[in-house]
Amino acid sequence: xxxxxxxxxSSDIASSALSLSKSKVIKKAGTDTDYAMTTGLTRIxxxxxxxVVILNSGDTAGNxxxxxxxGDVITKGKVYITNINARxxxxxxxxxxxxxxxxxxxxxxxxxFIPWDGGAGNDLELTPSAATSTxxxxxxxxx
Amino acid sequence: xxxxxxxxxASSGxxxxxxxxSKTMTMYKHNTTATSVDQLNxxxxxxxxxAPTNYDLIPESAELxxxxxxxxxxxxxxxxxxxxxxxxxxxxxxxxxYGGDWMIFPWADTHTDTESATxxxxxxxxxxxxxxxxxxxxxxxxxxSGETLLTAGDS
Lengths: 143, 155
Description:
The structure holds two protein chains of two kinds.
Chain A lengths: L1 E10 L6 E8 L11 E2 L3 E5 L5 E4 L21 E7 L9 E6 L2 E7 L3 E6 L7 E5 L5 E9 L1
Antiparallel strand pairs in A: 1-2, 3-11, 4-11, 5-10, 6-9, 6-11, 7-8, 7-10
Chain B lengths: L2 E10 L6 E8 L12 E9 L7 E4 L3 H5 L3 E7 L7 E6 L2 E7 L3 E6 L19 E6 L3 E9 L11
Antiparallel strand pairs in B: 1-2, 3-10, 4-9, 5-8, 5-10, 6-7, 6-9
């Protein structure tokens, strides 16, 4: 049971090309133990411009984007999110928030991969910038 | 001029069927169809242990705020599975990077700055880091469209 995450970044911004590459077998926090739980690759579509909870650390009822009461509360994991929408003219995006704090914007075609510690006030939430249909995929490996 | 990032995630043995994810993105400027970001910073440093608290790993700035399509890569280049670095923004911990862990994410730098260049105590959207367990080597890259440079005070 192992999960490997690999990133490669290539850039010709500078006069010499930059190439980053890193691969890691991701583990539970502070251990050499593989993750045993995952959401799998999940796809959601919304026309809401209100916050959608992707990861519930306990502040919001629901789980994995659902708004119904109940569901698991997750602590710690690795999170992959991608905005499936087309980029268009770059004027629409999905805000990614940690509770009320915005991390960044996923424009159409963008992705992110982060460790997530959870805890009070740290629900991982998405807010589409426009009411046009927004499709997002995510996959979480968690403890 | 282009900067691309490709991620692949391969997982077997958790679900009854393996997970295989692959995605490539090009880092474009805000409000453009296909104009790539054109500036970058790439650093390696040794993050001291603990005190006093978080360090500004990537300071916010008005220029970064004005062009919110910034992309950040951070890697804990240490190898110890039990030692880690927390990555925070505006006092909220995003997550912990243990030895060998990496992350990549968009950074909008959206919060109002209340600090000055010589006083880092205010709330802002700087990317902050703190080492736990031991001092650790961190590498990070910022791909962006412009940052505010400090005016020299000794001219």
